[in-house]
Structure formats: structure tokens, C-alpha cells
Q: What sequence folds into this?
């Protein structure tokens, strides 16, 4: 195996593939990055039996072949190289990498011990890469991080015709984002539970090209697999991951049909005040929000401890209301909203609030964040 490739192109592809490497591989070869060359160019791959990553790169290939080297080490080396072409050659059991006057020799691992990457399922449709990345970043805000509840560490993707819905919850909050896309067939109806961490990293990494292809298989030979592919200036990027098992809770019914108190507030004003007031809130205690007299008053702290209070202008319709929320969770939801003005809708103080942006340009793209209240200290 022997090839020459541009440093930036190679470094970007290596970093992209290596991001999927496990921190604690169950076998030494799973820490490896597979380098393959043929007459069509260069392919870099990683796979840990759950998630695979494959990057196709244009290169000047002199000799075809394959080699398996430490992925993280190769990524670190590539980041440090000068801006000159890279020459890489397989010499016996070692790989020689030369870039300018820098030369590295890396030990290889047995290619025959490396698992075969899963095949990409049949394409289901395409979506704008930028809009998909934004939608995913909003949805994963509410995903759980407790591995003892694996179902809640996923994002449920529901596809109905030309609409994708993304749902995530950790039991204390719920995020729902809908966006339009281009399905392969107009009557497509599918659902899948995708690991939130993988989905978030993948969507963010595929924004070089204009669109992302989503390939989902929930039956047949590709059961329980979802794939994403993007084509950018650096070449083709493709990743697959196994779907999570288990029944995602039926959360859509949690969004109330009525709104008895609605507050409209400038987002930055609310975020700034909330950050200041929450400085004195002890861990796991709520910040109180009182909606009355045409404004919002935030309070934190009690008794002999430090206390803080601040008022924020707000347009309020409906009954006065006092409630409290985990300030970090509230800030997460506000941070996921693009609009400058937010709306907080309540049914009553002891029920969840539904937060959304005001004045979104595209009605087909909807994001809602539901947050459970916290008990206020007396």
C-alpha cells in the first residue's frame, strides 16, 4: 500500500473516522483505524460493533492494500503535521508516514482480525444538512444520560411522509422538534430509537455538504440499523449505528391542549437574569418564577443563605402564577431556541411549562421544550 494525499484532507478524514473509536475497546483491534486503497482512492474506517464510520478520500494511489493502525495516535499525528502533502507506505508490519521533513513509523495490527463494517441500509430520504444538525442539537437537549435507563438515552425519530419528528426525554423534560424533508417514497412511515450521543455528533459532523441521506432499516437483514451519509469537499462520509432496544414512552400526550397563563419574554433578558439569580441557588434547588403585574420576578436562596431577586419585563396573559424550575434545565431549553423572543405557556403552577420561540419563519419547523416544575422551598 502506498499513496499521497493532501494533509488537510487526510487529517480531517482521520479525525472524523476516529471520533467513533471507543474509549475502552473490548478488543485491541477495535482501537484501530482501517486504511484501504484501491483504484478509486482511499477509504478510512472504524467500527466497534455498535457504530461504524467510513470516510472516502481522493488520493494518488501507487499501490493498493490495507493497514490497521491506532486511530487516536494517527489523528494526533495528523493534527501536528505541517501543511504539506502526506506520503504513506506500508512497509512489512509498519506504516511509514512522511510529511515534509517529519517522518513517523507506526506499528500495524492484524487486518484479518478486524470486523467487517455493516452495509448501509437502503436510503429512506434526504434532508438539508444544516437544518438537520440544528434540529438534532435541539432534540438531544432533553435526552437522558443515565445508562441505567438506556431507552431514555436515545432520540426517537418518527418519519411520516415529508415530516420528521425528533423526541427526547430524561423524565424531567421533553424536547420535540419537527422538520420537513425529502422522503424516498411519499407514504414513508417509520420510527427508530437512535443513541442521542451518536446522533448529535453525526449530525454536527455532516454539515460540509448540502444534504444528508438517512438510511433506516427496522426489518429484514439490516434490522435495527440506521445510516447517515454526507458528501462534502473532503469526500464522502458515512456512518451507521445500531438502534436502541426498548419501548420509548408515549410522550406526545404530555403537551397540554390548553394554555391558561402565557408569558412572552425577550430571551436574552430572561437568560441573563436567570444566570445571575441562580448563582445563589443551592444544588438541586429551584429558582422561583412569579408571573404577575405585567412582569416576571425571579427569586433564589432562602433563610440565612445568600438570596437574589430580579425582575424581567414580560407580556402576560391569563392568571397570575408562581412556580419554580431547575435553573440548569431551564437554561438548556432557552439555549436551544433560535428566536429572540420566547413564550412560556402554563396550565397551572404545578404542571409543566411549554417553552417555544416566537416568530419562527418556517411553520414546518417546530421546536417545543416541556419542563417539569420543582418544589419550592418554604
A:
Amino acid at each position: 500500500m502506498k499513496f499521497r494525499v493532501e494533509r488537510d484532507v487526510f487529517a480531517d478524514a482521520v479525525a472524523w473516522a476516529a471520533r467513533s473509536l471507543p474509549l475502552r475497546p473490548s478488543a485491541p483491534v477495535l482501537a484501530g483505524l482501517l486504511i484501504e486503497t484501491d483504484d478509486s482512492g482511499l477509504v478510512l474506517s472504524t467500527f466497534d460493533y455498535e457504530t461504524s464510520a467510513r470516510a472516502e478520500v481522493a488520493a494518488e494511489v501507487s499501490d493498493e492494500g490495507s493497514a490497521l493502525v491506532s486511530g487516536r495516535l494517527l489523528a494526533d499525528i495528523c493534527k501536528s503535521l505541517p501543511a504539506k502533502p502526506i506520503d504513506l507506505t506500508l512497509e512489512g508490519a509498519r506504516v511509514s508516514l512522511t510529511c515534509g521533513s517529519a517522518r513517523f513509523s507506526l506499528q500495524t495490527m492484524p487486518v484479518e482480525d478486524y470486523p467487517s463494517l455493516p452495509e448501509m441500509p437502503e436510503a429512506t430520504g434526504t434532508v438539508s444538512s444544516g437544518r438537520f444538525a440544528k434540529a438534532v442539537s435541539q432534540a438531544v437537549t432533553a435526552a437522558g444520560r443515565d445508562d441505567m435507563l438506556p431507552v431514555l438515552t436515545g432520540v426517537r425519530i418518527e418519519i411520516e411522509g415529508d415530516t420528521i419528528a425528533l423526541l427526547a426525554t430524561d423524565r424531567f423534560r421533553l424536547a420535540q422538534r419537527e422538520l420537513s424533508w425529502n422522503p424516498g417514497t411519499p407514504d414513508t412511515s417509520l420510527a427508530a430509537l437512535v443513541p442521542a450521543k451518536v446522533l448529535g455528533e453525526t449530525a454536527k459532523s455532516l454539515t460540509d455538504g448540502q444534504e444528508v441521506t438517512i438510511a433506516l432499516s427496522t426489518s429484514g437483514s439490516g434490522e435495527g440499523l440506521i445510516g447517515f451519509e454526507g458528501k462534502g469537499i473532503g469526500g464522502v462520509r458515512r456512518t451507521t449505528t445500531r438502534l436502541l432496544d426498548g419501548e420509548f414512552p408515549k410522550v406526545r400526550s404530555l403537551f397540554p391542549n390548553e394554555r391558561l397563563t402565557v408569558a412572552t419574554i425577550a430571551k436574552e433578558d430572561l437568560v441573563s437574569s436567570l444566570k445571575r439569580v441562580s448563582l445563589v441557588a443551592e444544588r438541586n434547588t429551584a429558582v422561583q418564577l412569579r408571573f404577575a403585574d405585567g412582569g416576571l420576578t425571579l427569586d433564589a436562596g432562602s433563610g440565612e443563605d445568600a438570596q437574589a431577586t430580579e425582575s424581567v419585563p414580560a407580556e402576560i396573559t391569563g392568571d397570575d402564577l408562581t412556580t419554580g424550575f431547575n435553573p440548569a434545565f431551564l437554561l438548556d431549553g432557552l439555549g436551544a431556541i433560535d428566536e429572540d423572543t420566547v413564550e412560556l405557556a402554563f396550565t397551572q403552577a404545578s404542571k409543566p411549562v411549554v417553552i417555544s420561540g416566537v416568530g419562527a419563519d418556517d411553520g414546518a419547523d417546530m421546536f417545543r421544550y416541556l419542563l417539569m416544575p420543582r418544589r419550592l422551598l418554604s
User: Anything to note?
Assistant: Helices lie at 7-18, 71-80, 129-139, 196-205, 267-277, 327-335. Residues 2-113 form a domain with the DNA Polymerase III; Chain A, domain 2 fold (CATH 3.10.150.10).
